[in-house]
Amino acid sequence: MRTFVLAALLLAIPAVAPATVVIPIDFRELVNVSTTIVHGRVTRVRTDWVDGRRAIETSVTVAAEECLKGRVDETVTVAVPGGQIGRYKTVFVGAPEFREGDEVVLFLRAYGGRLFIVGLNQGAFRVAADGAGRSVVTTPVVMGKGESDAQPVVRGDVTRRPLAVAAFRDLVKGIVADGTAR
Fold first, then answer.
1. How large a percentage of the chain has pLDDT more than 90?
2. Which domains are delineated in the chain?
């Protein structure tokens, strides 16, 4: 009988399950919250153990082609939670993955002397060639038409089209200029 009661008590105790919650960020807010916005190419991806070998973190080094906000050196190294070392893997939901050679635009913020991507994958934009060979950036998922406009996220939305890198740059620089004017 005691075993049954003990088993029932153990099953009744709720287990703590840590979770990652990613709240969609408006594009204007993403630009304003970021201390640094850099366009460049990934030159190195390295994984390391952190937290006493309890988790893995990926360090991504990007050769900066252009800084859209803030200041950076020729290269910038960004910490991204998660990664794989041998047979061990830490998965951090919402964290972007990178490969050497990827061309990206990263929205960054410093914490504790290190740079992190704002909003995890929301602050990491891929640059690729479209069918005509132009470099384009995927339009952000959440981009209001005005300052306070909320816009629902719709999977497969046909209005989300790739944006030329120059147009994306102008959009970001316009928001930066707006933010500094206030």
1. 42
2. 26-181 (2.40.50)
Q: Which helix (H) or strand (E) segment is 62 a member of?
A: strand 55-69
pTM for this entry: 0.77
**Beta carbons within 10 angstroms of residue 42's beta carbon:** 18
Please give the Cα distance from 180 to 90 (Å, whole number): 39
- State the Cα torsion 159-38-127-133 to the nearest 10°: 110
| Dist CA 27 CA 150 (whole Å) | 11
Rg (CA), the chain: 20
Task: Read off the pLDDT of residues 80-127 as tens digits, 9 standing for 90 and up.
Answer: 999 999 999 888 888 899 999 999 999 999 988 899 999 888 899 999
Return d(Cα 180, Cα 60) in angstroms, integer. 29
**128-144: burial string, b at 16+ Cβ within 10 Å, e else:** eeeeeeeebbebbbbee
Which pLDDT does position 4 carry in this prediction?
A: 64
Residue 17 has pLDDT above 80, yes or no: no
